[in-house]
Design goal:
The complex is a heterodimer of chains A (about 350) and B (about 180).
Chain A: E1 3-4, E2 15-20, H1 29-38, E3 51-55, H2 64-67, E4 75-76, H3 84-88, H4 96-101, E5 139-143, H5 152-156, E6 162-164, E7 171-173, H6 183-187, E8 193-196, E9 201-204, H7 209-212, H8 219-222, E10 229-233, H9 240-247, E11 252-253, E12 264-267, E13 273-275, E14 281-285, H10 289-296, H11 300-315, H12 321-327, E15 335-336
Parallel strand pairs in A: 2-12, 10-15
Antiparallel strand pairs in A: 1-4, 2-10, 3-5, 6-7, 8-9, 11-12, 13-14
Chain B: E1 2-9, H1 20-23, E2 34-42, E3 46-54, E4 72-78, E5 95-101, E6 108-112, E7 119-122, E8 128-134, E9 137-144, H2 148-153, E10 155-161, E11 173-175, E12 179-180
Antiparallel strand pairs in B: 1-2, 1-11, 2-3, 3-9, 4-5, 4-10, 5-6, 6-7, 8-9, 10-11, 10-12
The chains are: A alpha+beta (about 350), B mainly beta (about 180).
Chain lengths: ~350, ~180
């Protein structure tokens, strides 16, 4: 059943994104920015190219970590295509008209879906794990297509309808070639390719390609109120990606064990302490390191060590290039596309 | 002409892409073990083809779901001599045919030069296909008023996809080789 993934040629340059999970508010502004810009087709009303899920939690689609087409050692396995209802969650129809526009019902009827859903995106928002108030914990994990160096979706398409742009490594679906077979949906272990049953084609994040080509950051990054997203080329030593991923090594990929070399990286969450008797903070982390390792691999430990050390430096009033960058005092430094150009915010 | 055709599982090891051959390794019998093929002439260049196969659970539409696949069947004919059937032709040896899918209003014409190269085109005027299901048997009836490739080569290939089993693309039951048409 299993075999190693096929190697694919790397593009000369690769756009990438870093997300600092210590700053994510779970506000879903990125989700809405993406959806309103790109994903308004009725056939993908259920789909979120960008979503923010609560961890620990089941994620979106439900349990995507185990339904993808890769094993824990990076071998190919037969993945699953999520059901609309039990996997993604059906889009809900709300009674806006009756609640908002009807004088006779005003104040008498709650806003509610017409359906009786038992699952949907963000269904387990803020649930997390642990026991209140001593060990409870959760954090937000924004997710988008990882524009992998070795994309499982591209490997899965028998028609060659998915390709990786040589100029920037963005992974795209050629919908003129797509016949809606959904092997890409099945194979992607991050479950970030979606099927549009009305048009019978696959759709996915395009890394806001038309914006990027104009030197403008993707909508999810640009609209983020927490300024937690960084965008640029991996090989640009003056850019934020190089500094966070390669120089400081605090930005690490999600599920590196899948072997696809994602180009979306995360600064892992520094855990608050557990609370002991009398409400005193203990020297134990609330978020178990093993849980973070299950998401980000062994690199999460050293990354957290660097983050904590630099935080302490900053607390002592010392300079820290890393903290300056992550705090995003100068938002212009979050995005850098060309060596000679930088998007400038006034 | 009417005959029962034994089908085989289309081999996945020779299909394009790195995923399908590994995720669906060749094993086991075809999901549709056989089909009844009936071919009649319809004028000098035309044909009426009935294809019937066992189908316990018909899928007529994918609705708006993400994980449903419709029943489908295709007829193929070689354009040239010495055209491989099992791979749907190859470079410079094309096949052409007609694809019926239970959720489509009309069939499409298909042209291919090997796995992964299928191009779909609107069916020529008069090409029709209709599917029915009764008592565990799915039947597709094709009317093709003018099909020069079949009239010339007198060879037919068939492929069947069972939607309930999530068959699509190269996951299908096919005849092992071209079927001589004597009608």
């Amino acid at each position: 059943m299993t075999a190693k993934a096929s190697p694919t040629a790397q593009p000369p340059r690769q756009l990438a994104m870093v997300l600092d999970l210590n700053k994510c508010l779970g506000c879903q502004t990125c989700t809405i920015a993406c959806r309103k810009l790109w994903n308004t087709d009725s056939g993908t009303a259920y789909a979120y190219w960008n979503n923010v899920e609560t961890r620990p939690g089941k994620g979106f689609p439900k349990d995507w970590r185990v339904t993808g087409g890769r094993t824990a050692d990076g071998s190919v396995k037969r993945g699953e295509i999520p059901d609309l209802k039990s996997g993604y969650g059906e889009p809900w129809t709300f009674n806006h008209q009756r609640v908002v526009n009807s004088d006779s019902n005003k104040g008498k009827e709650w806003l509610r879906p017409a359906e009786s859903p038992d699952w949907g995106p963000n269904w387990d928002e803020d649930e997390g794990a642990g026991e209140y108030p001593t060990t409870n914990h959760h954090f937000y994990l924004p997710r988008l297509c990882n524009h992998c160096t070795h994309p499982a979706c591209m490997d899965a398409c028998p028609r060659g309808a998915i390709y990786k742009r040589s100029e920037d490594g963005i992974v795209l679906v050629n919908q003129d070639r797509c016949h809606g077979y959904r092997f890409c949906v099945e194979a992607c272990p991050y479950k970030k390719v979606f099927f549009d049953p009305e048009r019978s084609v696959s759709t996915k994040c395009i890394f806001c390609m038309p914006r990027v080509e104009k030197g403008v950051a993707p909508a999810c990054a640009r609209q983020c109120p927490g300024r937690l997203r960084f965008v640029g080329y991996r090989d640009d030593p003056e850019g934020p990606i190089w500094k966070l991923v390669h120089k400081w090594k605090v930005a690490i990929p999600l599920h590196p064990e899948f072997g696809l070399e994602p180009n979306v990286f995360y600064v892992p969450p520094v855990s608050p302490p557990k609370i002991g008797p009398g409400g005193r903070a203990l020297a134990e982390d609330r978020i178990p390191l093993d849980y973070l390792k299950s998401l980000f691999g062994d690199a999460v430990g050293p990354a957290l060590t660097v983050l904590c050390a630099e935080r302490e430096k900053r607390k002592r009033g010392e300079a820290s290039e890393l903290m300056e960058l992550l705090i995003a005092y100068d938002w212009n430094k979050n995005f850098k596309f060309d060596h000679g150009a930088r998007e400038v915010f006034k | 002409m009417k005959q029962t055709i034994n089908l085989v599982r289309a081999p996945t090891m020779i299909q394009p892409g790195g995923y399908v051959p590994k995720a669906y390794p060749d094993a086991g019998p075809p999901l549709t073990p056989n089909a009844v093929l009936m071919v009649d002439r319809n004028g000098a260049r035309g044909w009426v083809v009935h294809l019937a196969w066992p189908c316990a659970e018909p899928v007529d539409e994918i609705k708006s779901d993400t994980n449903r696949f419709a029943d489908a069947a295709a007829l193929l004919a070689p354009v040239l001599e010495d055209t491989p059937m099992i791979s749907m032709g190859g470079p410079d040896v094309p096949v052409e045919g007609v694809l019926w899918r239970a959720d489509w209003a009309a069939p499409v014409k298909i042209v291919a030069e090997g796995f992964g190269t299928v191009a779909r085109h609107p069916a020529p005027a008069g090409w029709t296909a209709h599917g029915t299901w009764k008592d565990g048997v799915r039947t597709a009836r094709f009317e093709i008023p003018d099909w020069p490739a079949l009239a010339t080569r007198k060879l037919l290939g068939i492929a069947i996809w069972r939607g309930a089993e999530r068959e699509r693309a190269g996951l299908k039951s096919v005849c092992a080789d071209w079927i001589p048409v004597t009608a």
